[in-house]
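Good morning N.,

You mentioned wanting to compare the apo and holo forms, so I went ahead and generated the holo version with protoporphyrin IX containing FE. This is what I fed in:
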Amino acid sequence: MSGRVTGCGRRVGIGRSPAYNARWGERVERDADHQDHAGASLLRRVWRSAFPGRGIPRTDRDRALATRNTALLHLRPVRLPARTLRWTHTFGLGGSSLVLFTFLVASGALMMLLYQPTAGGAHLSVTAIEKEVVFGPLVRGVHYWSANLLVLVLLAHVARVFLTGGYHGPRQFNWVIGVSLLLLVLAASFTGYLLPWDQLSYWAVTISTGMLQYVPAVGPTLARVLKGGTELGTETLVVFYTLHTTVLPTTLVVLMAFHFWRVRKVDGVVVPPPRPEEVGGQPEKVLFLPHLLGREAAQAAVVLALVLWLAALFGAPLGPPANPGMSPNPAKAPWYFSGFQELLVHVHPVLAVVVIPLAGLFAALLLPYLTVDDEPAGAWFLSRRGRRLAAVAALTAATLTPALVALDELLGSGSAGAPGWLRGGLLPLVVLVAAVAAGYRLARTRFGATTNEAVQAVVVLLAVALAALTLIGVYFRGEGMALTWPWRA
Ligand code: HEM
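and this is what came out, ligand included:
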């Protein structure tokens, strides 16, 4: 029999494919690397048993091997197009989301040592963390700011992926995984909101779970399951605590690993078009280690500094203990649900709580499948025309939304006339659908937009309208949810 027998007793060489030989050659070298150091110090041997390799990788081959042989790095591509490393292509938003998530897990685990999920003990234990534990306020602050920043950074990540067309072709399903991640992060934020059991959290969750009554058929049952009964109390805290500390983080970790693996399988993020000075042909590829890992580590350090600074300077809010007998006025939902709470002021609850959010969710899930894959992607806003259309859409939404809110306030939503379901339900729905269809048609026929450019303009219009509603809900609503200036709210 021909070929060479390796130290592992396997035959390589003639009769075997080059890929097989390369794999075995690599493995034999790795084993040899290991044995070379049998005489090294105990500490070094323990280290090398956990992290096989040649210490700090100094050649490109060792760097590629280190990425492939390290469990965490293995989720990332070994090589990726150099162009995708431009900071302005991704702003490192996906990596920053991961960093914020790890801060949340670390600070949350520390707080679990003291927190008590009971109606009598929750507020007391959080007060103890704030007043009696060394670095307690800092840990709570890190958790609070990481959670809020994570929602903001994630929304920016979604915007980046969408506006660079990173959801087409082989990335379609990763977009679907991403939408699930966003929902899970919102659910984790919301379940954490109740845990301090202060007036703000108690009433915000009362209002939010109260909205479920408008969901046809399953709404009341869902509310009862979530609350662990009919009223908010210890049972609710146990349900929220279990979801917040076990079910949601575990599911998030599994889905995140899947998300990164899908990015790896397509050799990184969508590739931006070359700059004029860059030569054509296949884009140049560079190693993940050190090029991307170095940048990600630097950005992680900046994110850590920002979170520590916010936590040390502003801490996390804690109001008086929950009082089920006295609701604060106004009682507002968490800021990321404020846009829908603002919608509730103007339209029928079924529309605000069920129809619009569900339609938005389905549209988001189907987006990669409703758009066209073979149009160019990778550039911000797709093209110059795409950028102009998106700007017009954003401006229209940013001016029309506050104008419509003010008009509704002036006319008085409660005025006599048509029944509520028509005035606040059917009519706004018809107007919304007609406006979106007209906008799409106009972009296609009048401005010659491609399918993806027209869809982009419509999504920008709706997203900016929701952002405007959120800002109005957070800053411009005062007592009795009346419109007011931020300094009076
Ligand atoms: C905890 C949540 C998330 C984490 C940690 C995360 C992380 C990442 C990372 C590290 C990347 C590659 C680099 C980058 O774009 O910065 C990425 C790409 C991507 N993400 Fe996320 N992501 C999350 C949520 C989402 C959400 C909510 C969506 C969409 C709704 C999404 C859709 C995508 C897609 C489609 C890609 C590939 C984009 C491309 O090729 O240009 N991700 N994500």
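Residues 90, 92-95, 97-98, 101, 154, 157-158, 161, 164, 166-167, 171, 174-175, 178-179, 181-182, 185, 256, 259, 263, 269-270 surround protoporphyrin IX containing FE (CB under 6 Å).

Happy to go through it together on a call whenever suits you.

Best,
F.
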